[in-house]
């Protein structure tokens, strides 16, 4: 069976139009808003984003190091109580060469992304998370990358 290209474009458009979600207006209802939600402001100044990189263990030996369950336990006990309003976690692959190592070590890793108001209290929370991980694993470091944001929710 041969499809002509002239039929393909309209067919794709029809299929994709079924994927679009359009909210239905309800008489007397107002649109949801985040007005007054300090954890998720419409517009914010003085916020920063931090990415923390946690090495879980050797990439070639997933049975060694911290398991997924161990990571989730750390996230639940050390991170979420400090930043309950939201966060993101990505699986990443990384390399690290320690001070006394002759070659880089390939690591299974997690990247934790947090957005928050830049305050001394929040910076202390970030430092506490890093310290807790180093204590848990014996790692020398948890890479931290922080920068200013222009953010809105």
In the CATH hierarchy, what is the architecture of the domain at 47-148 at level 2? 2-Layer Sandwich
Total beta-strand segments: 4
Structural class by sheet pairing and helices? alpha+beta
Total number of helical segments?
3
Mean pLDDT: 83
Percent of residues in helices: 25-40%
Order of secondary-structure elements? HEHEEHE
Instruction: Kindly report how far apart the N and C termini lie.
Output: 49 Å
Shape: elongated
The largest sheet has its strands arranged as 2-3-1-4
CATH class of the domain at 47-148: Alpha Beta
In angstroms, what is the radius of gyration?
22 Å
Sheet of most strands: 4 strands, antiparallel
| Unreliable spans | 5-23
Overview of this structure, please?
With 153 residues, this protein is of the alpha+beta class. It is built from three helices and four strands, in the order H-E-H-E-E-H-E. Strands 2-3-1-4 form a four-stranded antiparallel beta sheet, with helices on one face. Strand 2 (88-96) and strand 3 (105-117) form a beta hairpin. It is elongated.
Descriptive keywords:
28% helix, 4 strands, Alpha-Beta Plaits, 153 residues, 4-stranded antiparallel beta sheet, elongated, alpha+beta
């Amino acid at each position: 069976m041969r499809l002509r290209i002239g039929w393909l474009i309209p067919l794709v458009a029809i299929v994709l139009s079924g994927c679009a979600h359009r909210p239905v207006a309800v008489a007397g209802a107002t649109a949801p808003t985040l007005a007054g939600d300090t954890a998720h402001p419409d517009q914010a100044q003085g916020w920063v984003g931090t990415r923390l990189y946690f090495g879980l263990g050797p990439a070639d030996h997933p049975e060694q190091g911290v398991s997924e369950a161990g990571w989730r336990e750390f996230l639940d006990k050390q991170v979420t109580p400090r930043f309950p309003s939201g966060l993101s976690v990505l699986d990443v692959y990384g390399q690290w060469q320690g001070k006394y190592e002759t070659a880089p070590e390939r690591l299974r890793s997690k990247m934790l992304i947090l957005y928050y108001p830049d305050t001394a209290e929040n910076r202390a929370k970030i430092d506490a998370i890093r310290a807790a991980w180093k204590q848990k694993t014996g790692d020398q470091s948890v890479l931290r990358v922080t920068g200013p944001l222009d953010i809105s929710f």
